[in-house]
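Incident log, support desk, overnight shift.

02:14 A customer reports that sequence design results differ from what the structure should imply. Their input is reproduced verbatim below. On-call engineer (initials T.W.) acknowledged and began investigating.
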């Protein structure tokens, strides 16, 4: 016998345990019952409770009719109402339990979904950061190769390529970048790239760069011997040492940086990253824990007295 017809005939709750989801829906349609649950195990329980409650309601109505016929209407009516309320309360309790269980499972599902989404986003972010680092590293390698190749080419052909007789020194001076004490490293990097691209002889670099030096850098230059003043690399190292750059100085350079009108957003981003890397390098930051401690210390120093802050920075 079909399980649907068998249950309709016997109304035995045990028969529901072997019914499929489709069979449960057919039984519910027969009894005109609307199921709240969508999972089979909860559908069986809900359907059994509602059929039992329906059977009890029908029995209660039968008893009520019989009582009226026998003249015992008042007593039987109280019993019928009590039975109906009991069945209704039991049904309502089961319904609330099922709804609570469904909501808990839905919340658990959403939490698991959010966890998976978080893991996916973190993985994508990590991949993007690694790719950007690799791209930056590759660009630096290519730039270094280009500078080295240009230098070797000048060394090989310096004797065979004659310099122009009319050497416009003033024109070259105009192309030397402006010197900024807060960005002394960037100044020399900029100058070296300009000099390389313009193919200026390296023996002229020291003479060209010294015209832009100011403050402590110029003072350091004036203290060099005549022979050292002719060597660009000696002039550069002397100027950089004169600023006694400390981690605090690198931090201020990074925090106070602003975009200028002449620089693009891409150039500003690269300059910002370069300042940040110099600051991290001066603080010897090598891990996330080092970075966290540095950020906490910086924020803490903003909240203490100036005297204590000065001692810590020293």
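02:41 Re-run completed on a clean worker. Output:
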């Amino acid at each position: 016998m079909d399980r649907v017809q068998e249950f309709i005939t016997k109304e035995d709750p045990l028969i529901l345990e072997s019914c499929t989801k489709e069979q449960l829906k057919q039984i519910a349609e027969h009894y005109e019952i609307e199921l709240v649950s969508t999972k089979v195990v909860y559908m069986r329980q809900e359907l059994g409770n509602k059929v039992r409650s329906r059977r009890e309601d029908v029995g209660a109505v039968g008893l009520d009719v019989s009582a009226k016929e026998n003249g015992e209407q008042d007593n039987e009516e109280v019993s019928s109402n009590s039975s109906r309320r009991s069945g209704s309360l039991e049904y309502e309790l089961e319904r609330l339990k099922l709804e609570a269980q469904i909501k808990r499972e839905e919340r658990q599902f959403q939490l698991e979904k959010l966890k998976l989404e978080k893991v996916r986003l973190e993985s994508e972010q990590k991949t993007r950061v690694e790719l950007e680092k690799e791209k930056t590293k590759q660009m630096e390698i290519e730039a270094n190769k280009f500078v080295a190749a240009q230098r070797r080419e000048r060394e090989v052909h310096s004797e065979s390529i004659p310099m122009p007789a009319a050497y416009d020194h003033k024109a070259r001076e105009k192309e030397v970048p402006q010197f900024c004490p807060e960005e002394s490293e960037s100044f020399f990097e900029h100058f070296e790239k300009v000099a390389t691209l313009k193919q200026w002889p390296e023996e002229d670099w020291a003479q060209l760069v010294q015209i832009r030096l100011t403050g402590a850098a110029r003072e350091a230059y004036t203290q060099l011997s005549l022979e050292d003043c002719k060597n660009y690399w000696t002039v550069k190292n002397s100027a950089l040492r004169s600023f006694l750059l400390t981690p605090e100085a690198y931090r201020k350079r990074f925090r106070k940086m602003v975009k200028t009108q002449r620089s693009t957003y891409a150039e500003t981003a690269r300059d910002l990253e370069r300042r940040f890397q110099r600051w991290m390098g001066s603080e010897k930051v090598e891990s996330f824990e080092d970075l966290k401690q540095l950020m906490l210390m910086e924020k803490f120093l903003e909240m203490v007295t100036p005297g204590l802050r000065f001692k810590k920075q020293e």
